[in-house]
Design brief:
With 155 residues, the protein is α+β, with helices and mostly antiparallel strands. 28% of the residues lie in helices and 23% in strands.
Length: 155
């Protein structure tokens, strides 16, 4: 049941990604009225491989948007999708108590900071590995992909 609930919220983010496969595009979060961005960051060193990300802007900050800090959330593992943490622990909406609808999360990390989650390494969660050879097998490879992904997010 929890997996199905996660799929419903994830589908909202994924729909935006499929509309414009690689570019960052805004997604209207109807349930919470917050601006959300989701998409794929291509890794130029791995033709066809991309890191999936979701970003929520800060909602209660008095700072200008360009001055607000950004929290980068990477789920432990490696190999555990960071979107899991966003949907069940720290995102602006969580899935809980067997409901099929997201509920506002009073402890969300997007109150005063932007919240960026990246499914990494390539091949984890919604991130795409063009081939099994593109999936990093050591910390150096994971770090290189993540560094490129963060750079791609801010470009």
């Amino acid at each position: 049941r929890a997996r199905r609930d996660q799929s419903i919220l994830t589908a909202l983010l994924m729909a935006a990604c499929y509309m414009n496969f690689i570019a960052c595009r805004p997604v209207a979060d109807q349930a919470l009225g917050q601006p959300t961005y989701a998409g794929y960051i291509p890794l130029s060193s791995k033709d066809g491989s991309s890191l999936y990300y979701a970003y929520w802007e800060a909602t209660s900050s008095s700072q200008a948007p360009e001055e607000r800090p950004i929290v980068l959330w990477l789920q432990g593992g490696p190999g555990c999708a960071s979107t899991f943490g966003a949907f069940y622990e720290l995102g602006p909406a969580i899935l809980s108590d067997g409901t099929k609808r997201p509920k506002p999360n009073p402890w969300s990390l997007d109150k005063f900071n932007g919240l960026l989650v990246i499914d990494q390494p390539v091949g984890t969660g919604y991130s795409i590995a063009a081939s099994p050879a593109d999936i990093p097998t050591d910390m150096r490879g994971m770090a290189q992909d993540l560094y490129a992904g963060i750079g791609g997010f801010f470009d």
